[in-house]
Specification:
The protein has 165 residues and is of the alpha+beta class. The chain folds into two domains: 107 residues, no CATH class; 57 residues. The strands form two sheets. A four-stranded antiparallel sheet has the order 1-2-3-4. It has a three-stranded antiparallel sheet with strand order 5-6-7. A hairpin with a 2-residue loop joins strand 3 and strand 4. It starts with a strand and ends in an 18-residue tail after the last helix.
């Protein structure tokens, strides 16, 4: 397990601490009293602590921008994102994102980590390609079905146009 921490004090007086923990462990699944080892898996965790307004706020480093999250209806003026259970300004958001990027580049990556990450990327790419092929196949089937002689576009069956839909 490797860990790295960065701390930054903003002009607003807030202090931000971002901690990255990265490790490669066995992926153990517990099924009906048995422990199944499903191979090796990457575990990465960002812990973000913001000290501001005389309080300390903790979060997992997952930041949601206001424009990307439709559930934020009533947003205070000057707010850019949500994280650590508080509203964040653009300056704070950018500082946290930059610190996360610096930690990711700074923390050493083992050969096993790089191998697993490459495998993860290959699997994600293969899944995306399979999804695209499946969508294309379904669209072709749909078009073929719509063009089939006798297919009624009113009732969507083979009534040969004698339906009353």
């Amino acid at each position: 397990m490797t860990t790295a921490t960065k701390t930054r004090k903003l002009a607003s007086g807030a202090e931000i601490e971002v901690k990255l923990t990265r490790e490669v462990n066995d992926d153990i699944q517990y099924w009906d009293g048995y422990e199944l080892n499903k191979g090796r898996k990457i575990y990465e965790r960002y812990d973000v602590t913001i000290k501001a307004y005389g309080q300390t706020f903790h979060g997992n480093g997952y930041l949601r921008t206001v424009k990307d999250s439709p559930q934020f209806h009533h947003v205070p003026e000057g707010v850019y994102a949500r994280g650590c259970d508080i509203w964040l300004s653009k300056q704070t958001y950018d500082a946290i994102a930059a610190m996360k990027q610096e930690l990711d580049e700074e923390l050493p990556k083992s050969d096993e980590y790089l191998t697993l990450k490459a495998k993860e990327i290959r699997e994600a790419k293969a899944a995306k390609e399979a999804e695209e092929r499946n969508i294309a196949r379904m669209e072709a089937e749909h078009k073929a079905r719509q063009r089939h002689p006798g297919w009624c576009n009113k009732c969507h069956s083979y009534c040969y146009g004698d339906c009353s839909a």
